[in-house]
Design brief:
This protein has 522 residues and is an alpha/beta fold. It folds into three domains: 16-128 and 135-206 and 321-370, no CATH class; 208-318; 386-480, Serine Threonine Protein Phosphatase 5, Tetratricopeptide repeat (Alpha Horseshoe), CATH 1.25.40.10. It is 39% helix and 12% strand. Strands 2-1-6-10 form a four-stranded parallel sheet, with helices on both faces. Helix 13 packs antiparallel against helix 14 (444-457) and helix 14 (444-457) packs antiparallel against helix 15 (461-477). The longest helix has 18 residues, at 70-87. The radius of gyration is 25 Å and the shape is globular.
């Protein structure tokens, strides 16, 4: 907790946010497929949006397929890029050594792969002399192109299995670390070129005002061996989000957020563990808030990025997210990005690329980070501007500033002051979040009171419905099924949406199962 608060204070004074755009753009290259017109156009679109020098664009002649062989990767991607790094003096190499020697230093730290660059490398048979272990992980020669390219300057990485990530758990900008040739590789890719353009524009525009809204975190209560760690990541994420005043809806049930559940104003989504997009995300009218970051933990979540209805990453981007993390093959949970670390670094102002690699234990493996590598949604949000202290604040900003200024209070005193501040300013999101904290802590009476108060402050139908559903859950858990059922039935009459009506009817059946009709005697 002490480290977290110190980091916030330093950040508010500009410690993390001091890096200029020039530092980032001069350390970035853009890699595209010369054989694909859309890839060329997107590369120049991104470079212009981020003011990346055009001599930092690298065109490759490679396949347009998502999956390629190891031989294709080496011949059409890895070797041409090594040559570009050497020819353009981006690498500091040892003297009088072979071209595959480990790089001493690199002027380039960020790599943006543009749609059209292959996504993944299929399994290969090791060549004579190449050694791989016989266990299941270390003998797996498959990888994402992105993760494999991250170790382009570290050729000692074994062919099979993952390699240790030297940047894992760091809390320092990649541009400030000397003699670390690791490349932070992200990709600007999605089901259509238009979505990629929107991702780029959303990232740039969101940085100007910050990413404001509500987070939704979907736990899965996984109890199988080795899976409980994923739920712990999500629990830690909820704690950290609330510490900085981001209202967070946290579902601790085994089922995912159901179809019909209102997920409006969604800026952050973290969840698991379904094979493909489900629940509210399948609603044709659902859309993330601009600049949103959305991640669903699952093997193969990014096995393709060209379908808007397959797995998770492609669909989440199609629904308006600006960035996501995923896996192209089976990575095993402990070797995926640790969501709590990723979120922690993101809200401390690091770039999307830095946050992704700081949270990933291994490289040369299965992961991909899809989005603008330079995107910093929280680069400036912690810097409180004294000139704006007396100006009207949004509910989102008001909650954040309260949390920031009162972060050292004990929980009981914090709750008392928070409720007073939220009531004084009619801050519905803040009051709702206080109610959710109480519900999660088993204080159902306090939760019901807060959620009822929040509901009276809302005018949006989605906000009202969500607080109703949360209040019903608190009433049910408190043992008052009668009041919960009455609230469901009263709300059902006011909701015209078909999916929401179906959700309320399902709740009604759970609270008051229909009485079986006795069979007539023979």
């Amino acid at each position: 907790m002490k480290r977290f608060l110190c980091a916030l204070i330093l950040f508010s004074l500009g410690a993390v946010g001091a890096r200029g755009e020039t530092d980032l753009t001069s350390a970035t290259i853009v890699v595209y497929n010369r054989a694909t017109p859309d890839s060329i156009a997107l590369a120049y679109f991104y470079a212009k949006a981020r003011e990346i020098p055009f001599d930092h664009l690298v065109g490759l002649e490679c396949s347009n397929e998502e999956e390629i062989s190891r031989e294709e990767y080496n011949q059409t991607i890895a070797e041409p890029l090594r040559k570009a790094f050497r020819d353009r003096n981006w690498w500091t190499l040892p003297k009088e050594t072979d071209s595959h020697a480990t790089v001493r230093a690199s002027k380039i730290h960020f790599v943006a792969l543009i749609r059209g660059i292959p996504l993944k490398i299929r399994a290969t048979t090791p060549s004579p002399g190449e050694q791989v272990d016989n266990n299941q992980i270390s003998s797996d020669t498959r990888a994402s192109v992105d993760s494999e390219l991250s170790v382009l300057g570290i050729p000692s990485t074994p062919l099979g299995g993952p390699g240790n990530n030297p940047y894992f758990q760091s809390f320092k900008s990649i541009t400030e670390i000397e003699n670390l040739p690791l490349l932070l590789v992200c990709r600007l890719d999605a089901p259509t070129p238009e979505i990629v353009k929107r991702m780029i524009t959303d990232a740039v525009e969101t940085e100007k005002s910050g990413l404001w809204g509500r987070a939704y975190v979907d736990g899965a209560q996984q109890t199988a061996a080795g899976l409980g760690e994923g739920d712990l990541w999500l629990k830690n994420t909820v704690r950290d989000l609330r510490r900085v005043g981001i209202p967070t809806v946290y579902d601790t049930e085994s089922a995912l957020f159901p179809l019909g559940f209102p997920m409006n104003d969604c800026i952050l989504y973290y969840g698991w563990y379904a094979g493909t997009i489900t629940g509210p995300f399948t609603d044709p009218n659902f859309a993330f808030a601009r600049g949103a970051v959305a991640v669903h933990i699952h093997s193969f979540s990014a096995s393709t990025l060209r379908a808007a209805d397959a797995n998770w990453v492609g669909p989440l981007l199609s629904k308006g997210a600006a960035a996501s993390l995923g896996n192209v093959y089976e990575p095993y949970l402990q070797l995926t990005a640790q969501i709590d670390l990723f979120n922690d670094r993101l809200i401390h102002g690091f770039t999307f690329a830095e946050s992704a690699y700081m949270s990933t234990r291994v490289v040369s493996w299965m992961g991909v980070a899809v989005g603008d590598p330079l995107y910093r949604p929280y680069a400036n949000w912690l810097q409180l501007d004294p000139k704006k202290e007396n100006q009207p604040k949004s509910a989102w900003r008001g909650y954040h500033e309260f949390a920031f200024k009162n972060s050292t209070l004990q929980p009981a005193e914090y709750l008392t002051r928070a409720r007073a501040a939220a009531s004084r300013t009619d801050n519905g999101p803040m009051i709702e979040d206080l109610g959710l904290v109480q519900k999660e802590n088993g204080d159902y009476a306090g939760a019901i009171s807060h959620l009822q108060q929040a509901r009276t402050l809302y005018s949006s139908a989605d906000d009202i419905l969500r607080t109703v559903l949360e209040q019903v859950d608190a009433l049910r858990k408190s043992g008052n099924k009668k009041a919960a059922l009455a609230l469901v039935r009263a709300t059902e009459r006011l909701v015209p949406d078909a999916s929401t009506t179906a959700l309320l009817r399902k709740l009604e059946e759970q609270l008051a199962p229909p009485t079986p009709t006795p069979r007539a005697g023979l």
